Amino acid sequence: MKVTEYIENANGNTLISFEVLPPLKGGGMKAIFDTLDPLMEFKPPFIDVTYHREEFIYVKKSTGYYEKTAIRKRPGTVGICASIMHRYGVDAVPHLICGGFTKEETENVLIDLNFLEIHNVLALRGDARKFDGKFIPEKGGHSFAIDMVKQVSNMNNGKYLDPNIENGEKTDFCIGIAGYPEKHFEAPNMDQDLAFAKEKVEAGANYIVTQMFFDNNYYFEYVEKCRAMGIDVPIIPGLKPLTKKYQLTSIPRLFYLNLPNELACALKKEDNAEARRQVGIEWCIHQSKELKAKGAPCLHYYTMGDVETIRTIAEGVF
Ligand code: FAD
After folding, report:
1. E strands within 199-281?
2. Is this structure's pTM higher than 0.85?
């Protein structure tokens, strides 16, 4: 079933969903199952699986020189999605990124997903590769997420890249996109960022999942602004607990987010890891309860491998 159908069928009740990362190359499905097994009692109707572009590493050659080599450290998103659907009987939502893919490769992945009866995708641009400085699209690939949304929409209308394909099978993908309650860092301002989001919805996106935030007001204001602009699709808040001291600097640096002073001070004040974890859990439960009370369609938790913390939060909210 589609993410939007789950939301419609919930009749205003807040759903729960989780997001997992593929294991590092060489790892197996155990890491995914160890994360998801303890979370399935909360009955998530869908699980997201992230996608990771190739990265550059420097490999020392026999000559003594280093060679820049591209490797994909976390492959397997499509296979993991199929495996999750098979094991748990829930829907899986693969993240698809523009980076590293030609349009044809994207089309072929979408064909595989369609054959696997995976009918949800989160269409994203992806971030810049380390060492690139800025996002560089693949030659023959898409530059912005909207181009991928258009491609998926075209396939939903039976239109493939090859103009000779007539009466192509119409896929039936539900298309999610990313939203940024604190603005995407490259957007000149919030209005421009929202205008791009609106274009994606007009091009066929069916729902939005937000970047994490630690002050719910960002989410509420974001939803309000979207509605004022005529973006009427469901907006799912993405949530992650902040449980470690180093995250006080890494999260703002990596995700361009503000941390509420109250949270930052509470975390700093604690002198052991478990106490800090409790602060993060309580904060996230509080955020979740308020979002639920105010009618968020679904709470989407980034698990980041910390299943115990996410489980405690889910227990406190659902
Ligand atoms: P876009 O919509 O293409 O926007 C990128 C920037 O360009 C924005 O600043 C936007 O305002 C601007 N823009 C948009 N359209 C245009 C246009 N037509 N002309 C000019 N400017 C434009 N990354 C991964 O690599 N893998 C993942 O699995 C992944 N999952 C994510 C899940 C969620 C819920 C979120 C919020 C993010 C995720 N990301 C993931 C990160 C995401 O790929 C990055 O934030 C990326 O920098 C932007 O992606 P986007 O889809 O929002 O891009």
Report:
1. 207-212, 235-239
2. yes
Helix (H, G, I), strand (E, B) or coil at 302: strand
Q: Mean pLDDT in runs of 10 for the chain (318 residues)? A: 98 98 96 97 98 89 88 94 98 97 98 98 94 92 98 98 95 98 98 98 98 98 98 98 96 96 97 97 98 98 95 98
CA angle (182, 316, 43) in 5-degree steps: 85
User: Taking Cα atoms as reference points, which of 209, 7, 1 lies closest to residue 92?
Assistant: 1
| CA 74–ligand 1 middle distance (angstroms) | 19
| Whole-number Å distance between alpha carbons of 238 and 209 | 6
Query: What domains, with CATH codes, occur in the chain?
Result: 3-317 (3.20.20.220)
Task: Tell me which residue has its CA closest to atom 28 in ligand 1.
Answer: 50
58 beta partners:
68
300 lines ligand 1 (CB under 6 A): no
